[in-house]
Amino acid sequence: MRSLASIVLGFESLVLALATPVMISVADVRPSIALSVCLGLAVLSIIAAGLLRNQVGYVLGSVVQVGAVGLGFVVPVMFVLGLAFAAFWVAAIVLGRRIEEAKRAHAG
Fold this sequence. Notes:
Number of helices: 4
Strand content: under 5%
Low-confidence stretches: none
Helix content: over 70%
Largest sheet: none
Structural class: mainly alpha
Shape: elongated
Radius of gyration: 15 Å
């Protein structure tokens, strides 16, 4: 479960970092706000990926998903990307749990 979730968060951090210039140039958001919000979420997703050994990582990862969808109020395409990554996040958790259960069943 952890590896799938970390992959989702890693790719999402790239998308969030690349959303910064879009917010500045397309949505006319002040650079200081765009940098702090987008890069803040990108850094938070990397931190969450590092903390996935604990429940805290999954909570932070979920916060990143909410933030990514919330960026859609500023840049509408982020609704689509945010919801896509939120779906990947949920799928990674669900499939990861199924894989872990299958491994336990096979081992025992």
